## 1
Amino acid sequence: MPTKDRPKALNTLGTLAHHPDLARAYFTFNGHLLLGTTLTERQREIVVMRVAAVRKSSYEWYQHLFVARDAGLTDEEVGRIAYGPDSPLWSPLEAALIRSVDEMILDGGISTATWQVLATEFDTRQLLDLVFTAGGYDILARLFKSFELTMDDDIPDLMSRYHELYPAQGRCASD
């Protein structure tokens, strides 16, 4: 995962520094979500970006916009994540990933219909990683909102160079 020209999440780190034991435990958990998951990077970032969209967490959205692009999502796909699962351009699995996030956040769990789609593609470990990824990033979105975290200072500069960092591939012709 590249670190140059990527957000540093300093406001998150600064907030969690007030509780070192919790920070250590959460970073271990989050390390699995980022690096040890059985989901592909693309699947993970679809889930994370959908959590950010549903929770209206601009902090989480901008932190993971770069990670999502590094995972191979295009600008158009990132925009579709915010729109939701009903775009005909999503594969059935990707639509189910997005729908599962909506259901977990809004209903507390994944519906039988969505679960059946996911279970045709995922084994139990992947299903566990899906639930814990959505839950882990939902916790972060709640942290960001509750502590009223503001955008990190590096985000405006990175966004001003976004199209330099991610050239036209996958962008709409009008960009």
Note: Residues 40-160 form a domain with the AhpD-like fold (CATH 1.20.1290.10).
## 2
Amino acid sequence: MPRTLIGLDALDFVKEYFPVVRSKVFSNEAEVVSHCKRFPVILKLSSEKLVHKTEADAVVKVVNKKHLLQTIHDFKRIAKKLKAKSFGFLVQDLVSGVELLLGIKNDVSFGHVVVFGVGGVFVELFKDIQFRVVPLTKKDAEDMISQLKNKSLLEGFRNLPRVNKDALIQSILAASRLAVDHPEIKELDINPLICNNAACKAVDVRIVLDENLD
């Protein structure tokens, strides 16, 4: 039976391959309030019942303590509605940049492939995705970037920062190495991978592992 990793467990799994946003998970309200001394921060409801956190209003940019308390209350209500047996509160640093998707799929015909494209809430809207069979070369990574239909998003579009292309190439190649090193991965989604002119950081990760190969 497949095993799913989310939240901090998933971030820990990939942190040797990608820079990850600073994150900490808490089990109760008091711990969250004690930890959050500076704002803004990102607060997420962490539960296996949640696949698309943004659609469930389970990702919030918290701007002050009053907002934090209200958000925790809202998350408890969402968890109850989902009938989540267990859940936590994931606190992350706020990272600005372009939201991209980077992932791995184990295809029945081709084996592991790296998936890359426009991420965040625009994944299903743009459907601007590239695929390559592992292992990838630097040229493969460069082509995946250059062949995006919406590559202007990476070049300082409107108020977005210009993406550090070298950091993005290294992230794509890291996904290829991760697939080679961990054949037990059935699916891996980093969405978003937030990139700016300094770095690319994994923010939200979901992994499905084949326990027969784990």
Note: The chain has two domains: 22-92, 98-209.
